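REQUEST FORM: STRUCTURE PREDICTION
Request ID: SP-0412
Submitted by: Lab K.M.
Chain count: 1
Length (residues): 376
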Amino acid sequence: MNDRERWVAALRGQPVDHIPDEEFGYWRDTFIAWHKQGLPREVKDNAIADRFFCFARRETVPISVGLRPPFRRRVIREDERHRVIVDSEGVEAVVHKDGSSSIPHYVRFPLQTRADWAEFKRRLDPKDPGRRPVDWEWHVRQWRERTYPLGIYVGSLFGRLRNWMGFEHIAVTVHDDPDWIHEMVEHLTELALAVIDQAVQDVQLDFAAFWEDMAFRSGPMISPAMFREFLVPRYKRITDRLRQHGVDIVYLDCDGNIMDLVEPWLEAGVNTMFPLEVRGGSDPVVIRQRFGKAVRLLGGVDKTKLIEGKEAIRKEIARLEPLVADGGYIPHVDHRVPPDVTYENYLYYLKVKRDAFGIPHPRCWQEQMAAAQAHL
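STATUS: Completed
RESULT:
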């Protein structure tokens, strides 16, 4: 099987020669720490790391659901340790000057009034021809003979609004001005439908991806009832459009405890959950027990076990073996790998995972292990 056939079959719960070999990625601080522990210094971002660790290829089409044009990034002021910046989404935030990947301290959010929304709508024009790259036809020709899964990112219906408005403001607005929330979510839905239509006329997609991040460890940011009112009908329109064109794998990226949202997401046609933060309350074993094979799963390897050490790693992989055998599940670390995980432990995790699930060790793997052992 090639990477495309294997990935699609694995998530559909069909027989595969082995599960796909993929991971979510790493924080910037992790690369800095690992460079001191034996990782080659040229491995400095997630794209390079995917090739270095020999993971299977998976891509999305270069069609944008983002702000066009983005806000101008600029520095407002700075001191010895921090900068106050405005980012590409118009959010004012305090960041560390050393580039560390801690969460910024947010100062001001750009979407506060309906007048602000008019400016955002201008930047979120579904008819903007620039959402598709000028070399689109070249890409289409390359994709015809591809051997890897190709999907489309369709954006967000709540998470991006939360980013633009701030959590407190959107939480109050959901209650005080629900019509405005409906208007904004509807516009984001039309944008998602527009980019889907631009892609499916030329290429057969294998999956679609949403991003939301709308849950804390204690549960979702809005109630399931509000979720069903504002979001489910719009998700359903998007997933129906995707299925009209043969796209039946729709995954959603949400950190935290998603347990109260899995059922309404399934009702809305979103059938795959990612990245399944175990300590955040989203254990893949529990999700499968509660919802059965209606839900497909990506992620769910508890990152804290990689911090604890080799015995904990072995136990975590053993814990997930029945779920892998059950099908419809591709395991990987349940978020980006933090710097608390040593490079040695990470290499050991990859070895244990590949051995346990019958993933062939790539040729480059031998070189990595030899280099790591020489450093240690």
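NOTES: Residues 263 and 291 are 8 Å apart (CA to CA).
Reviewed by: T.R.
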